[in-house]
Amino acid sequence: MITIIAGTNRPDANSRKVAHSLLRFYENAGKQAQILDLADLPQEIFLPESYGEKPAGFQPFADSVLASSGLHVVTPEYNGGFPGILKYFIDMLPFPESFEDRPVAFTGVAAGMFGALRPVEQLQQIFAYRNAHIYPSRVFIMKVNDVLNDAGELDDAEIAGRLKEQSEGFAAFVAQLNKK
């Protein structure tokens, strides 16, 4: 199962819309995939005592990551970086097993010209530090508001093609690594 992480808890986030597009690409290719949406994190995870003992409501999120054959992170760009909620989520996951030897792909989403290049590179450093297998083909979606239609679906054939190619390639990468 490939777990797509919608990397923000912002309401009506474009990264969530892109995550749903990726889910369709995986499903259309016959791959099992699911979305893990950070907007659904339990509120008690934000209490200071969560650093010591994770609340029971967080366990399904940790289980989704631990049970995944690969993670596909969709991150927006906020002020030149990735959202704090995504970093906090990473920090709350079990160490080291959450990312150790786990395949990870990245898609960046931004309203600006760079398509979340900086946040993806920052995340690659974190996941590499945690010994994940980084899939080298990244997709950066710049001016995301121009490529989503009113229904929140991709309305740009080139970007849809790049996401389709990325999801198919990542699924093959995951399958190859999980054979070992």
UniProtKB/TrEMBL annotation:
GO terms for molecular function: FMN binding; oxidoreductase activity. One of its GO terms (cellular component) is cytosol. Residues 2-142 form the NADPH-dependent FMN reductase-like domain. Gene3D superfamilies: 3.40.50.360. This is NADPH-dependent oxidoreductase. It comes from Coraliomargarita sinensis.
